[in-house]
Queue: 3 jobs
Job 1
Amino acid sequence: MKIVLTRSMVPGDIQYIKDGLDKEIKGQYEFVVPAEFTEEGICSVIEGTDVLLGPFVTKKIVETAGNLKLIQVPWTGMDTFDFSSVQGITVPICNTHSNADSVAEIGVAMVLDLLKKVSYHDRKMRVGNWNRDQKPLNLKSKMLNKQTVCVLGFGNIGSRIGKLIAAFGAKVIAVDGHAKAGEIAEEVYKNDQIKEAVGKADVVICTLPLTDFTRGMINGEMFACMKDSVVFVNMSRAAVVDEDAAWRGLESGKIGAFGSDVWWNVPKRGESQSYPSVKHEFWRLDNVLMSPHRAGFIEDSLPHLDGAIENIIALSKGEKLSGVVDTSKGF
């Protein structure tokens, strides 16, 4: 089996994939890293390839491969994938959901932190301030128990968040086009009922995929439908939330607390410094909790890559693939 990487990865990630494959199919695959991650560079090594590993795919790459059996994106988000380049082909395109537990736990941690103001009071205590003047935030916590929590997108990550949240005694409702009400989500709303759903929630957690349909979906109009002082947490993609609307909501108090693992401005590849926004100073607000797109990473493991490893092994054994993407929906 010939596997060609279509986007550069750090050596540790490549070795992690190889180690995972070696546990099941050692000596049964060739892992090719192109000299250049361009159409020309990939096409120069693509002939006879079984698996394209990465999000960069063009029509020429697919055609040059000849007998391609799988296009595997080694993470969940498909927003950088050019679906127009694969129109009409029957090759399965898969992403991974193997980091869902990791992302879900961070999502719940952020909700709890915002309700309990843990990070805020930690910052105060580090300079000897016991916050007895209770400014700008008071000492009181909110209970997750008996809160109504709306999860936008109830797939692999959203349903796990819902299960964890429900264990605290919260009422979980969801917005999803396919899920059904059950043990986790007491109520499930269709996509066109999203405004009704968020209007019932004390906490809203976004796990929607980024598509043309969801880009900018959480805008001023959507925030206006939510309860005053709503707690909003984004575990999706930054572009799902309108940046200006989020800022206005925080300034006005409509949004009581805002947490996110994804931001509108990120460092260039290979760099580490970048403010999360070039438009608004979110970091100056005490009711904002920021995380540097790290929810899918855990110690001693790279769970977002596990699904890709498992699919390649499944392909080699003729077993069913997981995470097959619906190209008409983009996720």
Note: The mean pLDDT is 96.
Job 2
Amino acid sequence: MLGGALRPLPDGGWRLPFHPQDTVTSETAVHGDHWAQWLAAPCPALLLRGTASQVLSARHAAEMTARRPRTTHETLDADHFLQLRDPEGVHAAVRRFLARL
């Protein structure tokens, strides 16, 4: 999955375009209770979830939708990486969401 992200070095080697610790820091930051932030935004929201997501359960997505007014929830037949697995489905969902605003 990272193959396309590798960058060539002048000496012929390869490296990531970021430091691996950045990934660890980012992953750590997403864990925890984020309800206050989710519920604070008054604007319409589109919540996309993959049927095989290892990160966002159907139950949690349903709760997010129920608790936050003006949230549209769509499920796509993919894992958590929707934009990679089903880019056309993501585009279609965003177009539908924007058309309803």
Note: Strands lie at 7-8, 14-15, 45-50, 71-76.
Job 3
Amino acid sequence: MNNPGSSAPAPRLASCTYAAPLPGGAGLTELLTTGSECTWIRGGEGMVGLGTAARFTTTGSGRFEAARRWWMAATAAEAAESEGAHRSTVPDDGLPRRSPLAFAAFAFADDSPVDSVLVVPEFVLGSAHGRSWLTWQVDLDSPRYSERAATGWRPSRQDAERRLAELLAEAGPAGSAEPAVPGEPAGEGLELSDGVLSQEGYRAAVVRGVRQIEAGNLTKLVLARDAVVRSEDPVDVPRVLHTLTERYRDCWTYAVDGLIGSTPEMLVKVDGDTARARVLAGTLDRDGAPLGTAGAGYARQLLSEDPKQRHEHRLAVDSLTERLEPFTTSLQAPDAPFVLELPNVWHLATDVTARLVGAEGVRRTGPGALALTEVLHPTAAVCGTPREAAAALIAELERAEHGLDRGLFAGPVGWLDGNGNGEFGIALRGAVVEDPHTVRLYAGCGIVAASDPEAELAETHAKMRPMLQALGLQA
């Protein structure tokens, strides 16, 4: 299956970016009012997308290439206008040059029937390093703007402010979402149940995976399961996202086309000629662990000194650096991981930094964020080692035997701009809003020869905890 993409022609995007306070002086999370906004927030900084200027969907093994072709065509008009002009990644006004910009989410598997999607918001509101800005993005060929564009009209700040006021009025008042409070009673009218891959089925899948590893067919395998939350009232997506941004400030909270969550793992970030990644593998549940500094020492001992955890982590780091290295002039990956402390778990983590080849100027000639995302996905952290053997066994144990298609779970999610920059995390610690009353959660674990089925199942519970807390099902 290889759908070349949406049959609709690519838009002719034009944009304007200017410094401006966030509407009403609110923070980014206060802009989340409808649940349809695109979101990328970490530590209170990031971006929120409002409205839709254009949208593209695709499936199949060629989904990254189809998205790249569409995006290049969509941004060609602005590229032509700026050709020959000097535009730096951070211009003299101090604002990041990130326009045009799209949010994106890609399916995990090549043969998944679930759409991968690029969403070009009409407005992108951003905040970082004490500054905030607004980008207005329009399709010059759309019915709303085509007649004006034919006379030479282009987006301006005056028109942007008028249109933003209209859009905010349609969305409703900002500031309505409040984070869930830890320790509050579980939400009423909420029901949690197994998904298509039950807990019993997951244990059995782990047993079979370990047997394949012991037989020498592969070294590591990542197996996932799902769970379903049903709500009598419509799910309050803005509140869920607000809770995640508050409780998991060191993670990247994301929302794209119904995919929501807060991932601790960065697949790749491209900024000019620099690429960065954060690799996670090796997990320890904090539930029942010692508190305070004693807990930190406990985590270091059980993770850093555990051969199983270190082995699993090394496989994940190697899978990323081996694929990234051909596109770099230098690459740095520490030999020893550090322990990342999150409210629900501890992870072994390694931050990777690389200098990219051929990345000169804003319209890069080297690999951009989307191209590198295709190269790196899926890593051993979400698939296994060797990648091809692990992917085939995932398809057998998850989909063929139990009917579980990961869809967008464990696929790349983030944003990209017209200059080759972007950030793509791995869609972990998340869920898909299937309808106003139904949310499907996912979690996976790395399986190696020493894995115990009951322990791996317990780890999936720990990894679902952030979403369950945000939904109000766990304190």
Note: The chain has a mean pLDDT of 88.
